[in-house]
């Protein structure tokens, strides 16, 4: 977590700040939002915001201890998922 988010007590982050926290570009985070592969977000008065705990939970899905560790989830790339069926 960045010093700014931790110290200021921010509960919600706009796309540029959320992307910076994750080490992604804002455009990549926007693509994740469009494709449904990113963290949970909220629309508040036409603005997109991310709750800090939702960002951390999404990032935790990619946590691994080694290359052979299957982990608890998957962080998908920012692209359309193939149709299931």
From TrEMBL:
* Pfam entry (one): HTH_17
SUPFAM superfamilies in the cross-refs: Putative DNA-binding domain
* Stretch list, region Disordered: 65-85
In this chain the Helix-turn-helix domain maps to: 12-59
Q: What is this protein called?
A: Transcriptional regulator, AlpA family
Q: Which domain of life is it from?
A: Bacteria
